[in-house]
RNA sequence: GUGGGUGUAGCUCAAUUGGUCAGAGUGCCGGGUUGUGGCCCCGGAGGUUGAGGGUUCAAGUCCCUUCACUCACCCCA
């Protein structure tokens, strides 16, 4: 038979890695709760319309990267390419703004984009998302960024750089865009073919271009920060001073533009040199106006997403987390096997990790198994032991072996093993 | 969607210019110890060299096609 493989760009998280993923998620939950955030679990599918409206019809994500299909009753459904849209949908749908003035949420789960896979980029990838609604003050921006930095450090990632920028608002951004376009058009012939195209599709993207000729042109292009209106200007300087108050290191990158249409004012990105071309571990920004644009109340919003695959790729030491067995039960003969089977499951119920084998094997083979599982103890029950109503408990490190009476075995084992665990 | 790189045992990799080249290490199973693990020694299983076609007396090796993986562009977490 021909074997069936996983879909391109969609990876299994194998048992060797799963504990690490769990650990990261645990750290995230612990961290965010300290800041008053609550977890929300969301569906991975939404109506296509939601993403079209929030992310923007002309973005790459919506135009060519979404997994969209027609449901049986004609509705179009999409596997979420990002989380913010779904969080906002739920926020509106459940009238969450009515319960508290600011709502702080986080969610963890898979996202889907049909891109060509490469290092740090997958078709199914996982994000940790944080969203805050109902707060437009600069302190909020700074606190969200602080929390992100704190979280990364809590996972023991220290080697990253934080860049921030202000993208202006509906009032001031258009003037900036016009100016950029004008500047680029003036130098159009010297731009790379890609960027010549970008003038029409997404002029701000030229700022990200890596070719030297484009860089030169960008260097004397106007910067967003010069075009900020008074309010945006003040907001941004408050963000910066708040970050300073919190001792957060950051770099202002006036050329940073974010991919999604809805970002306004503060935008930020965390990158790492350890990642290759896809070097962003996390990114986010403010999106005041998006909630009402999706049919909800007029509330401010800010959030960020962390790419879990990328975060894990940055982890300095990825020592595998293992869960060695407390006890291996080696049985010899039918009678012993039956007893071992019952003991094993009684002990598990008492919170002890027990392993054994169901197929008959030599004692040597079973000892090998115990060793491979890094079991602290091995309990040997053979025909002789059954005859004498005992079992041999072997400490695998000291090689010391003691006979324990069968009728008190469970209690004694619990005692010995739990005591050892608390040493 | 476009380009580059790579496909040999479960895993990591060998195999001079096409000519016993289908191997090693590791892992797995078993034995050395008729009931005692790690180290050591010995043995065994496991591959139509990604697939298909072509050139040749002869192809893992050369050519074409295709698939997969991978990196990069694009874009983004």
Question: How would you describe this protein?
Answer:
By secondary structure, the chain is an alpha+beta fold. The chain has two domains: 18-172 and 228-314, Bira Bifunctional Protein, Domain 2 (BirA Bifunctional Protein, domain 2, 2-Layer Sandwich), CATH 3.30.930.10; 327-414, Rossmann fold, CATH 3.40.50.800. It is 39% helix and 21% strand. The chain has 16 helices and 16 strands. The protein has helices at residues 18-34, 48-55, 60-65, 84-93, 138-154, 173-186, 193-201, 212-219, 224-227, 230-245, 290-293, 308-314, 334-349, 363-372, 383-388, 409-421; strands spanning 38-39, 45-47, 67-70, 76-79, 103-112, 124-133, 161-166, 251-252, 264-271, 280-286, 301-307, 327-331, 354-356, 377-381, 390-395, 401-405. The strands form three sheets. Strands 1-5-6-11-10-9-7-8 form an eight-stranded mixed beta sheet. A five-stranded mixed beta sheet has the order 13-12-14-15-16, sandwiched between helices. It has a three-stranded antiparallel beta sheet with strand order 2-4-3. It starts with 17 loop residues before the first helix and ends with a helix. The chain binds one RNA strand of 77 nucleotides through helix 3, strand 6, strand 10, strand 11 and helix 12.
